[in-house]
Amino acid sequence: MRCCAEGEAAGEAPSSCPRCDVVGHEVGRDTVGAMATLVVPAPLLVHRTYRYCATEACPVVYYGRGGVVLGRQHVRVPVNAKDSGADVPLCYCFAHTRRSVAEKMDAREGPTSALIAREIEAGNCACELRNPTGRCCLGDVRRYEKEVAHRPPGTDFARDRKPRSRGGP
Ligand SMILES: [Zn+2]
């Protein structure tokens, strides 16, 4: 009795990550499908819901029922919760990275979060398709802006581990 529109009743999804055991928030199939690379077999993308693992040191990004696990290598974009690089996006809809957010602050151009808030208001976001969390980035961007604002002068803003010339997103 299986079909494409497999419902919630078809088997229990694990609530905690099979690798790190932390409970992730639910994400819809749209997000996982948009994020999955082409090496991920389509049958792994048929469930209606999955969970997102935000644990920094854990390689799992999504997990779902039937033992489905998608790791960082199965996701099209770098996941900022698991990658502290300066060129990793904090805002995936408008490609604001740790570096660009910090540079705007250094140049006193105002907070990136205000630009994003304006786009949200205009209805221009596509978080459930662009952000691996499936959620709005504004909280993450504001948290990072606070972090940058509170660092002592001269601190390497993103603790960059990657070469600077990696090209834009
Ligand atoms: Zn995990």
Describe the structure in brief.
Helices cover 25% and strands 13% of the residues. The chain is an alpha+beta fold.
Strand pairing plus helix content: what structural class?
A: alpha+beta
Say how many strands there are. 6
* Number of H/I helices: 5
Helix and strand string, N-terminal first?
EHEEEEEHHHH
- CA distance, first residue to last residue: 44 Å
**What is the average per-residue confidence, as pLDDT, rounded to a whole number?**
87
| Quaternary structure type | single chain
CATH topology of the largest domain: Arc Repressor Mutant, subunit A
State which percent range the strand residues make up. Answer: 5-15%
Contiguous runs where pLDDT drops below 50 for at least 5 residues: 1-10, 160-169
Strand order of the largest sheet: 1-2-3-4
**Shape field:** globular
- Helix fraction bin: 10-25%
- Give the bound compounds: zinc ion
CATH class of the largest domain: Mainly Alpha
- Estimate nothing, just give the exact number of structural domains: 2
* Major beta-sheet overview: 4 strands, antiparallel
CATH architecture label of the largest domain:
Orthogonal Bundle
- Tell me the radius of gyration: 17 Å
